[in-house]
Every structure is written in C-alpha cells, then in structure tokens.
Amino acid sequence: MGVQDLSALGIQALVDPAKTPTDEQVRVIEAPRRPLLVVAGAGSGKTETMSMRVLWLVANHEDIAPSSVLGLTFTRKAAGELGDRLRQRLALLARRVPSLRERLDEDPVSLTYNSFAERIVAEHGMRIGIDPDFTMLTEAGAVDLMTQIVEGWPTDLDEDLSPSAVVGHCLHLAGEVGEHGYTVEEARDALEEFGRDLEQIGATNATARKTLRANARRLAYLGPVEEFQRRKREGGLLDFSDQLVLATRIVRSAPAVRAQVRDEFQAVLLDEFQDTSVIQMELLSLLFHDHAVTAVGDPNQAIYGWRGASASSLERFLDRFQDGPARPGQTLTLSTAWRNDRNILRAANRVAAPLREHSRAAKSPVLRARPGAGEGRVDIAYTQDYRSALGAVVDFVSAHRARGTGEGKRPTTAVLCRRRSDFPYVDMALREAGVPTQIVGLGGLLDQPSVQDARAALVLADDVEASPWLARLLAGIDLGAADLVALGDWARHLAREEGRDPHRAVLLDAVDNPPEPGWSASSGARGRPAISGEAVRRVRTLGSRLRAVRAGAGRSVVEQVERAVSIMGILDDVVSDPLAAGGRAALDAFVDVAASYEAEVPGASLSSFLAYLDMADERENGLEAPVSEPDPQAVQIMTVHASKGLEWDGVVVFAMDDGVFPSHSKRRTVDWRDGPPTDSGWVRDASALPYPLRGDRMDLPDFDLDVEGEAKPSAAFKKWLEGDYEARLGEHAEREERRLAYVAMTRARSAQLLVGSWMYRTGASPRHPSRYLMEAHAELFARAGAGVGAVSGE
C-alpha cells in the first residue's frame, strides 16, 4: 500500500495494521466536514473511531492542523486519555507519512467541557466585567460558603430539614437556575408566576397544599441563592456552574469571540454528548453552529439526569447545530460490541429495547457481537432472602476467579450495587469467604460501619436534634426494645418538664440526662416499660462520650474527626473485631477526606464539612474526593453510576429487586409485566426547578395545568396530578432506571450474575423481581438456555 492512501483503511494500515475498521467505522471516519451525530452503543469502540477520524481529517484537509482539533469530554481523566491517544496516533502517522511530518508536529487540544468554558471566561471575561484573575470555587468551598449563609439566615428556611440538607437544596437550586439560563431575579419572577397559576386551583386538599408549599420553599431558597451569588461576585469567585453561564453570556453577546473560537478550532469532537446539560448545549451550539463538529454518545447510557444532563441532548443535536433538515449520513451508528460475549449482549439488548422505541432522531443501535465472540455466561438467581443472595454472589465470584482468563491471569471482577448501603454486606460476605475486596468511591467509604459511627458522633455534636444518627449509636450499645421505649418516654417527660411539645422531644436530652434505673412512664400511661439498670449504665457512658465530642467544638475539622474516632472507642472496636476487616483503612481514609476538605476550605466549620458529606450521600458521584486507585487483584464493589465506562471479565449486578433496582419509593412492589409505579418527581422537590420552567421542557412530561371551568379546581387538580401526570413522571423515572440497568449489564466481558431476593435487607414484605432481571430471564431462557446459568429461587 502506498503512503498516498489516506483513506480510513489506508491510515489504519499505517498506524495499527492489526485492526481493520468496520464499515460503520469507515463511514464515521470519512464523514464530510459538517455537523455529525454518532450514536455509539456500549463498548462499540467510539474512542478508537474518534481518534481515527481526527487522523483522517488532518491527513486529508490541509487547513486542519492537529492544534486546531478540539476534543471535549466530562472528566479530567477522560480528557487526558483522549489527548494521549491522539498525540500517539498523530506521531505514528507522521513517522509513516513523511510528507505530513511537518504539519503534524503539533498537539490537539483535549479539555473537559467545564475547562473549555473556564478558558473562554479567563480570556474574554472583561467583555462582561469579569476580572480575569478570578478564583475557582471548589465544590467543597461552595458547600462551606452556602453553609455560612444558611446558618446566618434570619428566618427558618425549612423546619422539616436539617441545616445541612437545606444547604444541599440551596446549592442544587442554584445550579438549576444557572443551568437553565436564569438569573436569580428571572427565576424569582418565573416561580412567582408559576405560583400564581397554582393558586388558581386553591388549597382545599393535601395534594394542592404540598405542591404550593414546595414552590413557596423554592422562592424562600432563592434568598440564600442570591446571597451566594453576591458573595461570589464580591470575592472574585466562580464555581463550575458560573463557568458555563458566563461563557455562554460572553459568546452570545460577542460575535468576535465566536469567530475567534471557530477559527481556532476547525474540527470539534464532543464526547459523551448524552450527558450534556441545557446550558452546555446552548454554549456549544452558539459556537459551532454549521461547523465541523462531531457529537458522540449513547442515549441508552444517559444516566446523569439527576445532575443536570438534559434528556434531549442527542435528540436535538442536529436541530441545534445546523439550519435546515438533517441530510442522509449525518446520523451514523457504531453497533459492534467489542467487549461483551453473546449472551451478555442478548440480555442487554432486551433491556434496552423499550428505550429504542422511545427514541426518535438518536436511536441507539441493537448491539452486535464482535467477530469470534464467545457465547458468554449469564447466571440469574432470585433467592428467598438477602443472606442467600449474598451467598450466590460469593459462589459466583469464587467460581469465576478460579477459572482464569486463558492468559494465566486471575479474571477481573466487580459487584455493582444500586444502593451504596449494600456495600458493607457484600464486602463482609466476600471477605469472610477469603476474597479480597475494594470499595470504590467516597459514597462507599461513608457506608462503612466504622465511618458511620464516627459521622454519627460528629453530626450529634453539630445538631442535637439529629435523632436518626443517635438511633444508630443506641443500636450499637445493644439496648433492649423495652429500654428503648422507656428512653423515648423519658425524652418526652423532659420536654414536658421544660414546657416544650413532647411530640418534638429531643432524644439526645434523654441520653445526656438519663433516668434512674427502674423509671417508667406508667404513672401517665398504663403498661409502659421500665428502663433497666444496665441500660442506664450504657446510656450514661454513651452520653459522656458524646459530651466529650461536643466539647471539641471550634477545633479544626480534622481534629474533631480524630477526637470522635478516639473518644467513641471506634478504633478499638475495629482493631478487636476480626470481622471488621478494612475498618482501620476506612477510618484513615475518612480522616484523609476531612484533611482534603480543610485544605480546600481553610478555616472550614464542622457544619460545612457535614453538609459536604450529606451532598455526597444525596448525589451519586456528585463530589470528588480522595479514593484509592482500583486494585485489579481485588473484587471491586461500586455503584452502577461509578461503573460507567469501565469493564471487567465478570460482573455481579446485585439486589435486582423491584423498589431497589429499579429504584422507587412506593411501598408496594410491582410485577415486572405491569407499568412502572407513579412518581411525584419535581412536584414536591423544592430544590428542583419545575419542569415547565426548564430549558428542555419540550422533552419532559408536560405539566398542563388547566382547571378553567372546573367546579372544584383543587379536586380536579388532585385527580389529574396523582393520576395522569404522576404516571407519566413514573414512566420518565423508569426510563432513567432502565438506562442504568443497561449500563450495568454491558460491563461484563464473559460472565455475569443478575441476583436479587424475595426478602430484601430492609422491609417486612416480599419484593417482586426486578423487571430487568425478568426481561433478561425471558430473553435468555426462551433460547433454551444455551450457555446460560440456572435460575434459582423462583
């Protein structure tokens, strides 16, 4: 082959002759210079294809130098990997084609979406009055600043929530306001108008009152949000949301900036485009309208709606990036799965089928197995109880690790959980069986029992009304049921003595000042139990320890964390418990998290650190924190969200019970053949903008508030909301869960276990099997079970 063959096949032969692009890949690589949408299924080689497209573009277009190629993605790690791959391939092509050597002696630009926005603000912020010497406010810094504002707010923002929860709600609302293009004043006007529409229905039933109350709270939260924005401006601070908002404002108002950026970057790659938000779509479409821009993504893997990703990014791409209708060849697909064996693909394709029916312009392809793919193995188990499900995990993992990979290596394995609270149980079951484990992510760290005990003591030092955390510590001192009832009675007795409402009694008061042994509330209520002497002794010890922890108020966050671990005796408990493997490492990591937070936020308060941890609980992977590098020798335990983009030889998808995965809040579980349960979604969530006010509202369930002519507007609203609308919200929520299931079920190369149990770890009623587990079962066992493991427990 001559060096002048610069087709996709020719370039591939020059830089990596062991591979041959598929026909689909060739079409993507050689696509014309115009807006191009590439819908790439899981594991379909999108990064390789995009790097080859860059090589083809620079080799065949003299005006496209490597430095004029811009690649954008979401994480620094992904941006670094994309940049490294492009540099290596360009260097190899330059060596193989001497005539290109001089022109290829440059590096492409690979950034995160936020870094790209920050660069625009830094270079052109003066146009809108932004000092180029601004300081970036980290997420930890944002939590600390909002905590100061909420703690000093003159009115009670939400009596039903802890201060740290209010901080999280205010920050989330602040992000939504910016993401959807509002100033605080514009958001206030829009919410007030929305509230006036709601008031037309009246408040004669609980449903209407809750909806009105949620909107009133949104308006109340805008006060701290506005103060947050003011303090950032005065301090020369920008957070991640500001980067995008300000960059968009600059680009919209300055045609010269648009022209400069377009001239600088002749070819643009937008990776993971399904996860972009409304404001990111606005910025990028303003800059690269009718430009050589390629967006790559998979609607079936759009799993970040909870953090601002728009449901319509891929669907609306061509509409937003060009004038006129799409032309043939502007939407291409990658459908060969290079990762998964055949049965794993069959199960994943079955689960994804309803998602394809819902898509229009960006329909994800049915994945096809790579040439030479094995059959693969999918085991499906639905056991009687949670303990048996853990046993199935241990059996699968042990057998899988014993098989080997054919290369003399131990196969890699992961257990993926929908709920982080399952981590400690999976971890203990595997460790007791002698299997090394590694819990990945800050969320997993916070679910470690030793860390939860330390956190409970810290929360109680900061908020005396945090009864759920006190209940955890009381459970740890093994009080009997009668003693717990008597302690609650004593708390109400103390509240009455102090003239307070006994229904709002503070349990910590009872722990600080326990009754004498034998005390009971029988004088005021018949048959109340008496508290035992041993219970009083244990409660006094706990109370003394908690007072000692509280006495450290005002010290540094790290010092308060270390004091809590020491005073509560947690480290001694971990060292003395042979089953608490990893507890010491978890405590050390928790101290490291506190140190890292304090380094980012000098002088941080305990309150703001606890709010930071609460946000890590509420937002899946929503906070970056120090975590150890993955250990390939250990079984990795992580959330499904955290697994996106990763792969292993064998994967367990754990707790596939209805209500867990798919997750929903209804008490009754749902048969897999029935429609999903209803969902209230944003309606009662004061931290979220109402769907009618969002920039992507055209692709969300329509909130058609029309009660005109109704004799009883409030009753009509209740019927419509709890019937038709919440049913559509439920369908919308289930699609998000289904996409998450698809991600989970495409991580395994050759072996997979889908497992759940009739009786989950919590709850007294049986749970139906997950619809995703049952759909996989129906698909695989309809094929006579070839290469598929047995189903148990049905």
UniProtKB/TrEMBL annotation:
<keyword id="KW-0347">Helicase</keyword>
<feature type="domain" description="UvrD-like helicase ATP-binding">
    <location>
        <begin position="19"/>
        <end position="341"/>
    </location>
</feature>
<protein>
    <recommendedName>
        <fullName>DNA 3'-5' helicase</fullName>
        <ecNumber>5.6.2.4</ecNumber>
    </recommendedName>
</protein>
<dbReference type="InterPro" id="IPR014017">
    <property type="entry name" value="DNA_helicase_UvrD-like_C"/>
</dbReference>
<keyword id="KW-0067">ATP-binding</keyword>
<dbReference type="GO" id="GO:0005829">
    <property type="term" value="C:cytosol"/>
</dbReference>
<dbReference type="InterPro" id="IPR027417">
    <property type="entry name" value="P-loop_NTPase"/>
</dbReference>
<dbReference type="Pfam" id="PF13361">
    <property type="entry name" value="UvrD_C"/>
</dbReference>
<feature type="domain" description="UvrD-like helicase C-terminal">
    <location>
        <begin position="342"/>
        <end position="645"/>
    </location>
</feature>
<dbReference type="GO" id="GO:0006355">
    <property type="term" value="P:regulation of DNA-templated transcription"/>
</dbReference>
<dbReference type="GO" id="GO:0033202">
    <property type="term" value="C:DNA helicase complex"/>
</dbReference>
<dbReference type="InterPro" id="IPR000212">
    <property type="entry name" value="DNA_helicase_UvrD/REP"/>
</dbReference>
<dbReference type="Pfam" id="PF00580">
    <property type="entry name" value="UvrD-helicase"/>
</dbReference>
<feature type="domain" description="Sigma-54 factor interaction">
    <location>
        <begin position="1"/>
        <end position="159"/>
    </location>
</feature>
<dbReference type="InterPro" id="IPR002078">
    <property type="entry name" value="Sigma_54_int"/>
</dbReference>
<keyword id="KW-0547">Nucleotide-binding</keyword>
<keyword id="KW-0413">Isomerase</keyword>
<dbReference type="GO" id="GO:0005524">
    <property type="term" value="F:ATP binding"/>
</dbReference>
<keyword id="KW-0378">Hydrolase</keyword>
<dbReference type="GO" id="GO:0000725">
    <property type="term" value="P:recombinational repair"/>
</dbReference>
<dbReference type="GO" id="GO:0043138">
    <property type="term" value="F:3'-5' DNA helicase activity"/>
</dbReference>
<comment type="similarity">
    <text>Belongs to the helicase family. UvrD subfamily.</text>
</comment>
<dbReference type="GO" id="GO:0016787">
    <property type="term" value="F:hydrolase activity"/>
</dbReference>
<dbReference type="InterPro" id="IPR014016">
    <property type="entry name" value="UvrD-like_ATP-bd"/>
</dbReference>
<feature type="binding site">
    <location>
        <begin position="40"/>
        <end position="47"/>
    </location>
    <ligand>
        <name>ATP</name>
    </ligand>
</feature>
<dbReference type="GO" id="GO:0003677">
    <property type="term" value="F:DNA binding"/>
</dbReference>
<dbReference type="InterPro" id="IPR013986">
    <property type="entry name" value="DExx_box_DNA_helicase_dom_sf"/>
</dbReference>
